[in-house]
From TrEMBL, chain A:
UniProt family annotation: Belongs to the binding-protein-dependent transport system permease family.
Major localization class: membrane
Protein name: Transporter
Domain ABC transmembrane type-1: 95-320
Any single Gene Ontology cellular-component annotation: plasma membrane
Assigned keywords, A-Z: Cell membrane, Membrane, Transmembrane, Transmembrane helix, Transport
Record-level GO BP terms: transmembrane transport
Localization per record: Cell membrane
InterPro entries per UniProt: MetI-like (IPR000515), MetI-like_sf (IPR035906), UgpAE/MalFG_permease (IPR050809)
The organism of origin for this protein: Actinoplanes auranticolor
Membrane topology qualifier: Multi-pass membrane protein
From TrEMBL, chain B:
Protein name: Transporter
Keywords in alphabetical order: Cell membrane, Membrane, Transmembrane, Transmembrane helix, Transport
Primary residence: membrane
Subcellular location(s) of the protein: Cell membrane
Source organism of the structure: Actinoplanes auranticolor
Gene3D superfamilies cross-referenced by the UniProt entry: MetI-like
PROSITE patterns: ABC_TM1
Topology in the lipid bilayer: Multi-pass membrane protein
Annotated TM spans: 12-35, 85-107, 119-141, 147-168, 197-218, 254-273
Amino acid sequence: MVTTRPPAAVSPAEDKPKGRRPLTRRQQENRAGLIYLSPTLIVVLVVVVLPILWTVMLAFQRIRLINLRRAGFFGEYTLANLELVLTSPGFWSSLWTTLAYTIGSTFFSILFGLIAALALRGRFRGRTMVRASVLLPYVAPVVAVTFVWEIMLSPQFGIANNWGTRFLGWDRPIAFLSQREYEVSLFGWQFDVPLALLTVIAFEAWRYFPFAFLFLLARLQAVPHDLEEAALVDGAAPTQIFRHILLPQLGPVIALLTVLRFIMTFNKFDDVYLLTGGGAGTEVVSVRVYQFLTARFDIGAASAQALVLAAGLVVLLVVYLKFMAPRVEGEEEN
Amino acid sequence: MDRAAVETRVFGVLRRVVIAVLVVVTLFPFLYMLLLSLRPIEEVLQNPGKLWVGPAEWTISTYREVLTPAGGGGQGFLRFLANSALVSIAATALTLLVSIPGAYAVSRLRFVGRRQVHFLFLSVYLFPSILLAIPLFVLFTRLGLRGSLAGLTIVYIAQTVPVSIYMLRNYLATIPVSLEEAAAVDGYSRLQTIRKVILPLAAPAVMANALYVFMIAWNEFLFALLFLVEDRNDWTVSLGLAQLSGGIEVSKTVLMAGSVVLTLPIVILFFAAERLLTEGLTAGADKG
């Protein structure tokens, strides 16, 4: 039986445009998207975004742990904290230390990661095991690896100093982690090196080169084989293949890694804190924040110090993105 | 010989050297940790340069000291292990619960502000965790969450959700949309589609993700230090070990035994699922 419905019954919504329409597909999708993402948004807002905003406010109030209860949104705002932080002894030197530590660690971790990725690219027996063990420094807990390094480098019973004095002819044990300057003579030149800082950088390079290795290896394995084979047929040397075929392909990943490692190292706290406690010329800004917080209970000053750190990072990143790596931004679009 | 032949030979040798150096450099500290933890402290102090001693001289007294409860004169690491496991497993489960729908939304659904979400995520990493630590310290003190494992778990979720969503999103992008359309034709709702079609297909990425979150939570130190330090019963293994090193009468070999106890679960997990993790972490990175 075929019936034709009266036109009015087809879509009641069209008759009354002011009434509640059923949601269109697009609106439904919009709502579902927001609902699915809302737990994430809530957690990130509460535990990350609000605290950041609150830090900004704390940085401009005179607050110590004792009068924390009275701290509110309408406290007295003042620039005293910023002034205290910017003029306190050791502020600028700790900023330079942070910068040197960050640049050194970023550079060497990516360089070693690249060397490792190139060496472990081809097939050989036991490659899976070697690849897994190379990743160990990155996945192992910080606390455990910093302790092993501390003990290995210890002047009293560390294996590095023991072997150094026995086999390498060192005159006396070297206090790698607690000596600020170390005098080196090279070809008759005498100069000081910041020993503890270099040791910390070496530790960072050791711990984070697997991170760079992981990303670079993944990219290397995606380089089309015929490109390299064509170059081989043409008699290209390995360095030429690297320079003209591999490096251009790796460029964007290296740029991305530079940004990631720079951000993460700049903000790093645990590694330096656990290795040296910030002593011997390794006081990076995040360790300073911790000391303001726990030794002086000065929450205002600690917040101001942390804010200066974040501001410095933002400035450096903007400069980097603007002038050094125009390709990184395009990366995000895929 | 021409340049290509010379270089090929040189780099062939160099490659073997590099591989050998890499293996030694990465594995040696862990081997040293293990060997030191098995030796009596007097013997280590006499022969600091000696690496290998026969199994006859090995001792497990260091491990006994680390694992015995604090009441029994030990360091009570069993309790810390339980705390760490609890926090890490809870953080892993909750992070996945939050990030799977989130990743699905970001990769599949068009909604207002979808393009802006990345900026929010970036803020998690742009600001140092020490900066978050101050207000969270204040906030959690007020809420009474400081000094509780639940508070710590919440922080770990916030720290890992963005990366987790990013990893999952890249994987979801490789699953054809036509499968979902077929499921819709069969009358599945969106949630049913996620549970019965998407999740089974994305299982490798979800596993890799779970491992990643577990590792971050297990290894974390700063927030554990700030939030839990007051009550020994709440310490995680990382915190317990760090506090152990401050003790004067604790010998270095005991410290190494503690380090082994802290590292071993992660290493076992890692070797069990290495391939899964490396592929999951870098999914999408090779698109260049």
